[in-house]
Amino acid sequence: MGYLELTGIQKRFGTTFAVEDFNLVAERGEFVSFLGPSGCGKTTTLRMIAGFERPTAGRILIDGVDVTDRAPNKRDVGMVFQSYALFPNLTVADNVGFGLKVRKRSTEQITKRVDELLQIVNLPEKGKRYPYQLSGGQQQRVALARALAFEPQVLLLDEPLSALDAKIRVALRHEIRSIQRQLGITTVYVTHDQEEALSLSDRVVVMSEGRMEQVGTPFEIYNFPSTAFVASFVGTLNVLPGVVTDLAAGGVTIAGQAVRIARGFHGQPGGPVTVALRPEMVSLGSDDALGANHLTGKVTDVSFLGSIVRIRVGLGEGGPVVVLDEFNEPTLKLPQLGETVTISFPEEGPLVLDAKAPLDSVEALIAEA
Amino acid sequence: MSGGGQPPLAPAGVMRSWLRPGGDGRGRRRGGGMRLVWWLVFLTGSFYFILPLVATFLFSLRDVPPTAAYTDLFQDPEFFSSFAYSFAVGVATIVVSVALVVPTAFWVRLRLPRVRPVIEFITLLPFMVPPVVLVFGLISTYSPPPLSLTGSDFGSTVLLVAAYVVLSLPYMYRAADTGLSTIDVRTLTEAAQSLGSGWMTILLRVILPNVRVAVLSGAFLTLAIVLGEFTVAIFLARPAFAPFLALLGTKDPFAQAAGALVSFGMTWIAMIIISALGRGSQTRISVAGAR
Question: Where are the alpha helices (DSSP H) in A126-254?
C-alpha cells in the first residue's frame, strides 16, 4: 500500500471531463511530478489532493486514511502556489509560523520551528521583513518554509517556479529537491516544464486532456515514451511516417529507404506506422560505427544553438525531415545547404508509437516547439 | 505604489515636462502653459471648497462678542451629548456594516462571482429609496407588537442603527469590494486553508487585515453619513447631532454656523486618524506581489 493513493479519480465540470480515470500510488518520501500542457488536468488533480476541488468519482487516501471528503484545512497537506500567496500583512516569520499558530502551538515552539525553517530555506536573517521587501525567489522560499512548517503529510507544489526568471528557477529547483530529500516528505509537483519534471522527480506522470499518458521514471519517460503524445511532449522528436515491410525482423521503410527497428512493435505488413527518433540518436555520416541504419537526404537547414548544431535533412522531394544534433566543436565540418548527406542511427534508436493521441496533434506540438 | 517621487494632482508626464532642464523654447512655453492651467484648476478647486467655509466662519463671528457663537456652543451640554450619541450610533453602524458586508463581499468574490451584479444592484437600492420612505417603512413595520421597537429608547436606537446600515450599504460594500479587488482573494484563502485555517480565521486574520484601509475608508464615509443624517433621526425622535444642529439654527444661527464648522473640524481629525492608521499597510498591500 502506498502513502498517497489516488484511485479512479475523475473530475467533471458540467459535461467536460477535466480529469479521467486517474490512478496513482506514491510511496512515502517520493517526489512525483505531473507534467503536461495547459488544460491537461494536472492542476485540477493537485487541487483535488489539496481538497480545493471535490472529485466527481474516486478516492484519495493519505497514509491509508480516506481524505476524499475532508475539508482542505483538515487534510494536513502543505501547498506552495505559483503566485507565492504570502500574506502581505504578516512578516516572513509570521507567515512561516501561521500554520503553527492556527494549530495553537506555544510561542516558544513556533519561534523555534520558524528559525529552523528559515535556516533550511537559507533566509535566516529575513524573519522581520515583509513579503514585499523580498525578491520573487525569496518569497517562494518563504512560501515553501510556510508549507513545511507544520510538518504536513504531503507537500503539493503548483508550478512554483514559473513566475521566476530562468537562473533563479534552476537554482531554486535544486534547493527544493534537496530540502525534500532532507525532510523525506512525499511531494507532488505540477509543471509544464519537462526539464523541471525530469530533473526533480523520482517519477513523472505525463498528462494530456485529463488522462494519464504515462507514468515512469524520468529515464523511462524520455527514452521509452509509450505514446505519441509523451514522445512529442518530452524532448525534441522526429516523427516519421513509415511502412511495415517485415514485422518479425523489425523492417520498416521511411521515405522509401529501409531501416530496422530493434524494439518490437505492432502493425501489419504493408501498413503504416509512426516512427519516433530523438535528434541526439542520429549522426551525420555513413560509418557503420555511427549506427546500422542509414538514410540519405538533402540538408535543408543548419542552425547554431550554442553547444549543439541542429541540422535538418529532407528525405526525398516533399518527404519527411529528420532533425539531428551535432556537438559544436572546433573540428566539426558542417554540410552545405542542399548537399546530399547520409545520416545514421542505431537499430535501438527508433521507436514505433502507439496512436493513443492523434498524430496531427503531435505534429502541431512539434511545430509549436 | 507608494513613493516614486510623483507630485500629486497631476499626471506624471505633465509634471515631468515642468522639470525637463533643456529642450527647445516651444517645449518650455508649452510646459509653462500647462503649469498655468494646473494652477488655475487648483485655485478653482480650492476656492470652491474653501469659500463656503470662510463664509460660514465669518458669519459665525457676527455675533456679539464675535466669539459668543463658539462659547455658547461649547457651553450647551446638548452639543456634546448629541455628538457623543451620533458618534456611538456611527460606531455601532460601522461594526454591524463591517460584520455584514465584508463576509458577503468576500463570499461573492470567492464563490459567487456570477451574482456580483445582483449584489451590487441590491447595495444601490438605498439610493433609490428616500430616507423619509425608509423611516416610515421601519416605523410601520417595527412599531406594532410584538416587537414594538419604537416603544423604548433602546429599540428606537436599534432601528436607527439598522436604518443607517442600509443607508451606508452602497459606500461600505464598494469600499470592501474595492479592497478585495487589490488582493488575490482565492489564492490567499486557499493558502490559509491549506495551513489549517477555518473560515473565521481566514476572515479575521487574512482577509480583514488586508482590506483594512478600504474598510476604514468605508467606515469613515459611514461615520460622516451618520453624523450628518437628519431625516431618520428626527422621525425616530433620537437625540442625534444633525437634529440638534437644525434645532440650534432656529434659536441661534451664529452658533449653528459655529457648530457646522466644529463638526467639520472633527470630521477632518477622524480622516487624519484613518489616514495615519492605514498608511503603512496601504504601502505593503499595494506593492506585495508586484515583484
Answer: 136-149, 166-183, 194-200, 218-223, 228-233
Residue type at A13? F
Are B225 and B129 within 8 A, CB to CB? no
**Cβ–Cβ below 8 Å for B194 and A132:** no
Among B111, B195, B285, the strongest candidate for a mutation testing the A interface, having the largest count of A CBs within 10 A, is B195
Q: Which residues contact A78 (CB under 8 A, 6 or more apart)?
A: A99, A146, A147, A148, A150, A152, A154, A155, A156, B194, B195
- Spacing of C-alpha B47 from chain mean position: 23
Low-confidence ranges of chain A (pLDDT < 50): 356-369
Residue A352 near residue A275, CB atoms below 8 Å: yes
Exposure of A196 in the CB half-sphere (CA atoms within 13 A): 26
Question: In A, residues 29-48, which contact B (CB 8 Å cutoff)?
Answer: none
pLDDT at B16 > cutoff 60: no
Residues of A in contact with B193 (CB under 8 A): 51-52, 71-73
Name every chain A residue with its beta carbon within 8 A of the beta carbon of B210: 87-89
Among chain A residues, the shortest Cα distance to B213 is held by A89
Strand partners, A189: A33, A157
What sections of B111-152 are H helices per DSSP?
Answer: 116-128, 131-142
Contacts of B127 by beta carbon, 8 Å cutoff, 6+ apart? B170
Grade residue B6 by pLDDT with cuts at 50, 70 and 90. very low
Please, what are the domains in chain B? 68-276 (1.10.3720.10)
Whether the complex's predicted ipTM surpasses the cut of 0.90: no
The reported pLDDT for the residue numbered B263 is: 84
Max mean pLDDT range (A67-81, B22-36, B125-139)? A67-81
- Sheet containing A65-66, strands listed edge to edge, beginning at the edge strand earlier in sequence: A16-26, A4-13, A57-62, A65-66
Q: Are A6 and A22 in contact (CB under 8 A)?
A: yes
**Contact at CB, A99 and B195, closer than 8 angstroms:** yes
Widest CA span of chain B, in angstroms?
81
CA angle A275, A276, A279 (to 5 degrees): 135
> Residues B268-281: pLDDT tens digits?
786 677 667 655 54
Secondary structure of residue A118 in the 3-state scheme: helix
Q: What is the DSSP-derived secondary structure letter of residue A328? A: -
**Exposure letters A26-55 (e unless 16+ CB within 10 A, then b):** beeebbbbbbbeeebbbbbbbbbbbbbbeb
Q: Higher model confidence: residue A30 or residue B263?
A: A30
- Taking the whole predicted model, whether its pTM rises above 0.90 is answered as no
A96 touches chain B (CB under 8 A): no
Angle at B18 between CA B15 and CA B22, to 5 degrees: 135
Going by their DSSP bridges, the two strands A340-345 and A293-305 should be labelled as antiparallel
Q: How close, in Å, is residue A53 to chain B by CA atoms?
A: 11
Q: Chain A contacts of B190, Cβ < 8 Å? A: 50, 52, 72, 79, 81, 85
Q: Are B148 and B83 in contact (CB under 8 A)?
A: no
In sequence order, what are the residues at sequence separation of 6 or more whose Cβ sits closer than 8 angstroms to the Cβ of residue B280? Answer: none
